[in-house]
Amino acid sequence: MAGLEIVTVKTRSDIANFIDLPWQIYKDYPLWAPPLKSHMRRLLNPSKHPFWEFSERELYLARRGSETVGRIAAVVDGNHNQYHNEKMGAWGFFECRNDPEAAAGLFKAVEGWTREKGMAFLRGPLNPSMNYECGMLIEGFEQAPTIMMPYNPPYYVDLIETNGFEKEKDLITIRFEEWDQPSPRLERLARRLKRSNRMTIRPLNLKNLNKEMKLFNSIFNECWAENWGFVPMTDGEMRESVKDLPKIADPDLIYFTYYDDDPAGVAMLLPDANPLLQRLNGRLGPIGLIKVALHRKEITGIRGIVWGYKKRYQRLGAALMAWDYGYRKFRENGYKYCEMGWNLEDNRGINQLDTEIGGTVNKRYRIYRKDL
After folding, report:
1. pLDDT, tens digit (0-9, with 9 covering 90-100), for 329-364
2. Which of 280, 300, 301, 369 could crosslink 337 through cysteines, CB 3.0-4.6 Å?
């Protein structure tokens, strides 16, 4: 085996190697859904993506001779550290062959860089923060990932834990198959809420997307303010994250809940486009657009990405009202499954609601920590 070298990404060729590596790692993992390479290039580009307006990063490759066998990103998220008064360094975008020496070299590089930046501990995987893909899959490898959720080989767990990382928090997803009628008790409560006429639902207006997403972001930031690991998204990040929304969204399934005239909460359920991403294999282009048109019927499920309600309305049934609306649209629009999450493992309120309306915990992801 050729000797190991850890190199800093500096050239276009290095970036291409960084982005292309997963296609080697996952060639024997048919459930993996490749990201669009154009999206990855933009996300990692400090001059183009708004996350880097307040953050720093360094990218590393592990090489044996001319062959790239691993990659990782070291990140310092300025907004997170200011919001939580922490000195957190993050690692993310980790991919590696089953090569313990390469993994150790990559983590050592991250530790050195973040120490130089004055950080006190490492958390990951964050790609590049909790507002994007995050967590390492530790249970549910036999199931396909849903849109914007990570997937990884099982051996990654050993590569991480043998380098001194320990569990900090688990994230779970809860899946509904066919979403059969939930308990009569919830049905009665939902009917009572609708009869009061104080709580209403309004779907997103895609024709006025910028204004709608400012409202979405303000509700999101208030609802999640006290959640573990949360950091507010900037307006720039929100605009970036939804610029392709009209291409994939089901307008019925992004909606606001109002109590009288006050926005009480927001929900975003996106069609699970991963079957199309598998067909696209990282590239869109003219041929990719034809594939999307031909195979869009392969989208048969949804992922509940955002489901949040202001604290003062939680006990008034805002989440239940939103569930009732989402359930009916799910049935009307012919979806076959829904995966809710991720949820924090200790968020008992939402986890209890999801299971009471018929869901089952199906995957578990882990956030790791290591003190420096």
Report:
1. 888 999 999 999 999 999 988 898 888 878 899 999
2. 301
